[in-house]
Predict the structure.
Amino acid sequence: MTDKKGSEYCLIVEGAYLTDGEAEHALRDPFIEDWVEQTGHFKIHNMNDIQVTPGVTLGSLGVVMLDERVFEIASVDPEHPLTEHKAKGVAEALRRQDMFDEVNVEPRGEFNLQVTPEEETS
């Protein structure tokens, strides 16, 4: 019997971004804009105040490029990894903001790039 409790999850997203920095800006910008509309101002320390979904702040998420247009979004706080429930909440928030073409929740470290037959021979 496998125990999923305690497993760390991440989001695998696809979007038209060339670097992880661009994807990170795409992730953060809509939430920062909402924060500014609500509060009237933003300072970098507010990243840990902005809730993406209950229990997950914008400042706790990091973006890493896995492949061209493919990125992993995961918790950068080892004390608070994304649970499956929290990852699904983040995924839903990202889908509402519509900044990525594809948003999928997966156990962290289990993402496999699909190699096409053309890529194998090149």
